[in-house]
Amino acid sequence: MVLKERNFTEQDCHLYIISLVSKMPNLFCQMVKKMILILLTVIIITYCIHPGRFAHYYTFIKEEDMVHELEESPLAQKLSETSGLPLCPWHILNESSYSLLYPKKNVTQCDLNELSVKLDIKLGGTWKPSNCVSRFDVAIVVPYRNRQTQLEIFLLYMHSFLQKQMINYRILIIEQVEKKDFNRAKLLNIGYIEALKLFPYHCFIFHDVDLIPQKQNNIYACTHQPRHMSSSLNTFRYNLPYRGLFGGAVAILKSQFELVNGFSNMFFGWGGEDDDFQSRINHKGLSICRFSPRVSRYVMLTHSKELPSETRFSNLLAGKNRYDVDGINTLVYTVRNSTFKPLYTWILVDI
Ligand code: BGC
Ligand code: MN
Questions:
Q1: Which of 122, 154, 179, 223 has the maximal Cβ count within 10 Å?
Q2: Which residues cross the membrane (predicted)?
Q3: Alpha carbon distance 99, 95 (integer Å)
């Protein structure tokens, strides 16, 4: 069979163009409709997953009010009188600049070795100002397992950060032996008890090792109410996911920690223990507070996401009946090693 070659005449061409042009408004309309649909979907999804969608309902302490909220150590005034040294000044609270944008990630052993000499850090990772009396005696308790690189970045960064704030502090790393699932809350309870064996700290900061504070005026001291310090976190796009969040880095007075019976010891695996702690605080008539998001900025050092514990919700629910019978008053553990390292107090525990 021989196919006849069809001639594409000028007329055909005109007809084709006319038909295309006549369809154009239709095509254009469909395209615009599709784009609007895609845009709407993106907006809805972004809104739903955006952690800060309720942010305007939250209350924060303004920068100028921070100074009135701080709780000074009951020892400071007396020590100032007996030693003849003045109390340390407050000027760090006006230091609203970034202390850094991102911490130094490639920390060498040399950096760490130099640090204790350069910053005059005492064995066990403790320091206090030498020409004034610190207003704050603070134990910084870090629950730990298997995060060597993060720990090095944290230590290199935190010592100089804390010294600029003129805090009398100690960094305690509470490491859980391999075996059971990680129990962050129980490690924090242990850190509390162990720190008090070393010094009568009046303020405790419970701090994840992967969190780096970015603002120098985010003072590592306690406020009248327990304070959620890391409320403006890069991984949450610097927004607070929900009002009751009390994880990451928090500051609480010794007396308040006693009152709420510390953390629950029953949360194994990731999640829930901080929510339970927040409920304990509310249950005793206290309420958590936060500094302005401009102050509470943190970056989280990258790590793979933990798998949430399957029992965290049932644990949370059951936890409500356990506040007085599960906590620092029922804490049982064995210390496997306790060493004053150059940059921190290391306590290895079997829980
Ligand atoms: C968990 C908390 C955690 C928070 C933020 C919640 O679902 O229960 O433990 O701190 O998410 O990641
Ligand atoms: Mn983390």
A1: 154
A2: 31-49
A3: 9
Atom of ligand 1 nearest to the CA of 248: 10
Ligand 1 atom showing the smallest separation from residue 273 Cα: 9
Residue type at position 3: L
- Domain 58-350 matching CATH 3.90.550.10: the answer reads yes
User: What is the residue extent of each domain of the chain?
Assistant: 1-49, 58-350
The string of pLDDT tens digits covering residues 6-20 is 566 777 778 877 777
pTM as predicted: 0.86
For ligand 1, the distance from its centroid to the CA atom of residue 244, given in whole angstroms, is 10
Torsion (CA) 112, 118, 119, 124 in degrees, nearest 10:
50
DSSP characters over 159-223: HHHHHHTT-EEEEEEEEEPSSSPP-HHHHHHHHHHHHHHH---SEEEEE-TTEEE-BTTS-SS-B
pLDDT at 52: 55
Alpha-carbon Rg of the chain, whole angstroms?
A: 28
